[in-house]
Structure formats: C-alpha cells, structure tokens
Design goal:
560 residues, Thiamin_PyroP_enz_cen_dom, metal-binding, alpha/beta, thiamine pyrophosphate, DHS-like_NAD/FAD-binding_dom, Thiamine pyrophosphate-binding protein
Length: 560
C-alpha cells in the first residue's frame, strides 16, 4: 500500500474533472471548502455568487447551454435549502445538474450540529438521485453515480450531501474508488421500438395535414439536425416551444409560429416531440380527438399521460426522427413535396400566420405612452443577431415576448420551464456568458422577477461578463394582478402585487454596470445598442403599460 493519501474534497474534484466539468457555481461555507481546494488542483473554476438559489439556477442554465451537467456546491442547512428552488426548477425542466451540499460531521449525527438538516429527505422528491456519501473512499464513486442517474431516461438533477468529516478526511489513494472518465456511463440514444418507427413512417406517408411540435427535449438531446432533416425531407410544418425554439430559423418555409392552434384543430396527424401534455398543452385537451396523435419522449412515464395517443415512441428524439426519415425513404403518398394536398396545407397555415401577424402588428409597432409590451418585444426581436442567446425571466412581460421574439439559432432560447420559476434570469445570464463568452446574451426581465435574484448583477460585473438586460417595468406583479382583477374585480386588483417605481438603471450603475431609463418607444433600440457597445453588464429600464395583459396571461388555466 502506498503512503500517498487524498481527501474527500479532492476526490470529488477528480470525479468532476472525469465528467468534463470545468466550473462549479457556489456560495462558500465551512462544510465545503475542501472541494474548492480540490478544484484548484484539478483546474476547475470556482464561480462564487451571492445566493445559493443563483448557484443552483446557474448550474441548470450551464447544463442547458453546454449539454454537460452543471454543478452547484453549497453548504449545509440554509445553504442547501436556499438551493432547493433551483433544483426543483431543473427537475421540472429535465435539466441535468448535480447539487453537492455540505452536512454536519457523521460523528455528530443527531447531536444538533451546526446547520444539520435532513437534506436527502427533502431533495428526494425533486431529484432523480439523492444520497449521502458514507465514506471518504466513496466520494468520487458517488459523484459519478449521481451523474449517471442524471441521464437515466429524461435528464434531471441529482443531489449528494457530504458530511464534513467525510469530506475532510484522507484515505490512501489506492483505496479510493475513482471511476475512469468515459467508462462509468454509456449512451442513452435509444431508437425505441423499430415497429413503432415503421408505423410512424406509414402515418406520415398517408397524411395530408400533418404537423409536428418540437419541444425542449429536441435541444436537450441535441437532436436539432435530425429534427430539421425530418421536417424538410418529409415536408412537415414545424411548431416549436420551450428550448426547442430556434430549431428552424424564422423565415424557413417549414417554420410556423402563430398558427399552432389552427394547425392542431385541423391537422390529421399531430406529432409531439419532447413535450408533456401538461398545462402548456391544456393537459392534451388542445389536441382534437379526431386527429391521430403521436408522442415521442425520452421518458416512458410521459407518453400517453393525460391524453390517449395513437402511437407512442420512447427513446432519443434525434434517433427516432432520423430512423423515421430512413424508414419513410422511397414511400409514395403524402410525404412527397409535390403532394397537392400537402402543398395546400402549407398555404393554409401560412395564410393563418399572416393574418395573425397583421392583427397584432398595430400593437407591436405602437407609439403609445406608456410603452406597450408588444412594442418592447418587437424591438428586442429586431435587436437579436444570429448569435444572440435570449433569456426570458418574468410573468406577463415574458408571455408577451413568447409570441414575438424568435431565436435565430438552436439553443438560443432560455426560459424557466414548466415550474414557472421567477428569478432565473441573472443566473442563466451568468451561466450562458461563462460558457459562451463570445456570444451575446440578451435578457428580458419583469421587474418583479429581477428583484428576486438581481443582486447577482454584481457577480456579472465582478466576473466581467457583459450582457444586454432589459427590464419591462410596470411596478407590478402583473400576471397575478390580472387574475385578481378577473376574479375579484378592479377594486381588489391591487392587493399584494404592487411594487415600487424602482430605477433599475441606477441600480446597474451603482454596481458598476451600464444603465439607461426609457419612456419613449423610439428610444428602446438606441438604448439597447448603447448597452451592447458599453461592454458592461447592463440594464435598460423600460416603463411599460401596466394595464396591458398578454393573451397567454388571460388564458392561463389557473384563472379558469
């Protein structure tokens, strides 16, 4: 046996390195500092934030941007509970991240040690894997185990707590279990049941009015190329939601956006890829019973949940779409680009798109004061470049933007996901700019959403990570205000949802960033350009009409 020894924290760092992790997001605490020491030796960056929720959201965001698991490291007790929201958001968004939490020493178990809480019990319902590291020699092994579980089926978060004496103790190097990079987990790119792929090819070959909805899993599984080839080769109109936005660029003949409800109501074949039948889909009720419905998902539990389907395929979306293209090769029928029925269907949908756009355009170009939120969304959409990553963090203001802002490339749209968590914006900016420093990041915040994690604007200044931030400021939690007015009347519409008239542009300047205030719609674009040119983290404080509500807000199921 060698005399060389290694600590638990250094074993954790070695396991992170084996997974390809190059940064951890953290807020310091006495329980976890040996991990920092190990990260220094392994060349892993330590990015420190001002709130553990920010660290967890940043790990989630980093996973979305890079495709690698994000990692947050927090101390025990309140450090771990502060991170719960970030983990829960990643759980609903199917984002692969690892949260490592400190814990009191095992030698003080149940004695009332500092910050002792039952972390594993709390994390189990919102993770794919949650455990305590029981011995120093297992530290690296259990980190790799946690990463493996992140990719079991649909991705998601894992949690490990490491007691302080386990982390700080040293064990002989040759007694420690250190899994070898690339050899402790394998590909999950399953094509599913070949017979189901053949059945889908048959359905497409005879369909006159098909459409496909590409959801978040298309980006999560890095299935963009397969999805694009599927749409173009088989000539299928494409709608996109969540992180699936940007799979096809605006202007592509197969890209549709504003006619989704019409398409669902009139299609004879609807293919849902990587999107559950949750509240965003009306729990499946938005799909008519007369259409054939096909669902493709990484998670067996999602397929057919809340609505019956005609065909379900469980596996990697990219692999399934590519196999379907191959299976459909050479077949005659509706998949031919010259098909009269299919050509008419495209023209029908395009006419619906143009009509919806014309109806909205007057508000989108409105010169009204205060500024209409659709005008703000329009200016942001015009401002985006091919490389701009767009991040939405808010309620009503981001709902407005969802119908207007169109990312021009895959992986360039980030929103909280189905948990609807406000406060993800600054952490997502941190993750995106750290991972892609040469790409522009443009973020739209509601004033209420920004307030939740806005102090970490200083972290962006400290790490010299410039971005263009826009706050749609109506001094309100307006999405909730709408529901209160609709339910209880205008006289009770201002209970618990009204904020102060905060000058966020001054806040940005105070912390060392760039800030401007905008009250005239004509000034939005010039202010954003100056923010871009400043080379600093920025906030453009745009005063928007508090009495304008997004259609998506007025149609929310919680108000029905």
């Amino acid at each position: 046996m060698t005399d060389a020894t290694i600590s638990g924290g250094h074993l954790v760092a070695k396991a992170l390195k084996a997974e390809g992790v190059d940064v951890i997001f953290t807020l310091c605490g006495g329980h976890i500092i040996d991990i920092y020491d190990g990260c220094v030796d392994e060349g892993i960056a330590v990015v420190d934030v001002r709130h553990e929720q920010v660290a967890a959201h940043a790990a989630d965001g980093y996973a979305r941007i890079t495709g690698k698991p994000g990692v947050a490291v927090v101390t025990a007790g309140p450090g771990t509970t502060d991170a719960v929201t970030g983990v829960a958001n990643a759980f609903r968004a199917e984002s692969p991240m690892l949260l490592i939490g400190g814990q009191g020493a095992l030698s003080q178990h149940k004695m009332g040690s500092l910050q002792d809480l039952p972390h594993v019990d709390m994390m189990t319902p919102i993770t794919k894997f949650a455990a305590t590291v029981p011995h120093t020699s297992r530290a690296a092994d259990m980190v790799s185990m946690a990463f493996r579980e992140c990719y079991n089926g649909a991705p998601g978060p894992s949690f490990l707590e490491i007691p302080r004496d386990i982390l700080d103790a040293r064990v002989p190097v040759d007694s420690a279990v250190v899994p070898v990079a690339g050899r402790y987990r394998t590909s999950t790119r399953s094509v599913g049941d070949p017979a189901s792929v053949e059945r889908l090819a048959d359905l497409l070959s005879t369909s006159e009015k098909p459409c496909v909805l590409l959801g978040t899993q298309v980006w999560t599984a890095r299935a963009t190329d397969a999805a694009v080839d599927f749409a173009r080769t088989l000539n299928v109109p494409v709608f996109m939601n969540g992180a699936g936005r940007g799979t096809l660029p605006p202007g592509d003949p197969h890209h549709f956006h504003l006619s989704r409800r019409y398409a669902f109501n009139n299609a004879d074949l609807i293919i849902i890829v990587g999107t559950p039948f949750d509240f965003r889909m009306g729990y499946g009720r938005r799909l008519p019973q007369g259409a054939k419905v096909v669902q493709i998902d990484l998670d067996y539990r999602t397929v057919g949940k809340n609505r019956d389907i005609d065909l379900g395929l469980v596996g990697d979306p990219g692999a399934i779409l590519a196999a379907t293209v191959q299976a459909a090769s050479g077949r005659t029928g509706g998949t031919g680009a010259a098909s009269v029925a299919r050509k008419a269907w495209f023209e029908e949908l395009r006419a619906q798109e143009e009509e919806a756009y014309r109806k909205r355009l007057p508000r989108q170009l409105s010169d009204a004061h205060p500024i209409h939120p659709l005008r703000l969304a329009h200016e942001i959409n015009e401002f985006l470049t091919e490389d701009s990553i767009y991040i939405g963090d808010g309620g009503d203001i981001v709902t407005f933007s969802g119908g207007v802002v169109q990312p021009k490339s895959p992986g360039h749209w980030m929103d909280p996901g189905p948990l609807g968590t406000l406060g993800v914006g600054i952490p997502f900016v941190l993750a995106a700019k750290y991972a892609r420093p040469d790409q522009e990041v443009v973020a739209l915040f509601g004033d209420g959403a920004f307030s939740l994690t806005g102090w970490d604007f200083e972290t962006l200044v400290r790490y010299k990570l410039p971005f263009v931030g826009v706050i749609g400021n109506n001094s309100s939690m307006n999405q909730i205000r709408y529901g209160q007015e609709a339910k209880y009347g205008k006289e009770r519409g201002r209970i618990g949802n009204t904020l102060g008239d905060v000058r966020y542009d001054e806040f940005a300047r105070m912390l060392g960033g760039y800030g401007e205030e905008v009250r005239d719609p004509a000034d939005i674009a010039p202010a954003m350009r100056r923010a871009r040119e400043s080379g600093l983290p920025s906030l453009i404080n745009v005063w928007v009409d508090p009495d304008a509500y997004a259609p998506g807000t007025m149609n929310q199921t919680m108000y029905k």
